[in-house]
Each structure stands twice: as structure tokens, then as C-alpha cells.
Amino acid sequence: MNLDRNEDYFLHDFNKNDSAASGPETTTPVPGQTVDFSSSSRAGDASPSPAVKKRGGCRKAWIWFFAIIIAALAVTVSIRYFIPYTTDSQVRGYVVSVERRGIVCKTFEGEMVSHAALEDSTRIYAREINFSIPSDSLARLLQSYQGTGRPVTVTLERYYGTLPWRGAYPTVAVAVEPGL
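The chain above was modelled as a monomer; its predicted structure follows.
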């Protein structure tokens, strides 16, 4: 290889032998002549050279990756916060307190003692049931039963997580019926 012939070093094809026996020699560009790098090295070949490749495959892979991640997060959030895992759960008992709590999102929170826990005299500890009340009319109805000694049946839904505008407890009261 003779580099003393005023050839441009970067335009030299190092894969070909410099001897004349290797085949037809490529012409070196004359200074001031433009070189077209978009065409292939052979005149009859229409495919792009291996050095020029499209990067669309990598971009599509990233788009699919982020689409799958976003879809998985959307399903997880909807299952955790918006789809109840227990519906139509009914508890019969006595309303102990209904109060409005919260700093930014004011919600009603209720507390009641189960009727079965009061009837069972062998238990020492009676478990209280805490729940959130999403509607104001339902909270006012429960407040009217508070302290009266009349039992009520509360229909509850349970979620895996809590939301600030729904209340502080994952258990949410849906309906109230007066007990007998």
C-alpha cells in the first residue's frame, strides 16, 4: 500500500489489494470532485452497503417495550384502586360513630360494632368495623341511626387500596338498611 500518491486516506479501500492482479482498480477522486456515498460500491447492486443500516427496528422495540409497561401499570392501578375484590358484603350491627375527616379531601368515616360480636358473651374483645362513606346522603342516614340502639345492615365493598376522595379505609359503605 503506497500512501504517498496524494490519495485521501479515508477514501482508500483497504479491503482490496494494491496489486494490479486483484482486479479492476477503483478510481480515486480528483480534488474538488464530489463523491456520492449513498450508492453502493458496485454499479449493478441496488442494496445498501452494510455500513448504512436503518435503525427502525430498535425504535420499534422500545415503543413496544414502553407500551407493554404502560399497559401493565394501567391494569395494576385499575385492579388495586378501582375494582373491588369483595362486593355485596353485609354486616349487621350498631353504628358507633360517623364523622367527617380529612384536610384536603373531606370524607365521612364510620365505625360500627357487629351484632354477632355483642351477642357472643364468651368473647372478651368485640371487633369494631371501620369503613368509609362516599356519599353525603348515606352518611346523614347513618348519623341518624347513631346512638339510637337500633341495628342496621350495611352493605360494603372492599378494595385493595384507598384513594383520598373515597376515604381513609379500603372498606366502603354502599347501602344501608334498617335492621329489625
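The chain has a mean pLDDT of 80.
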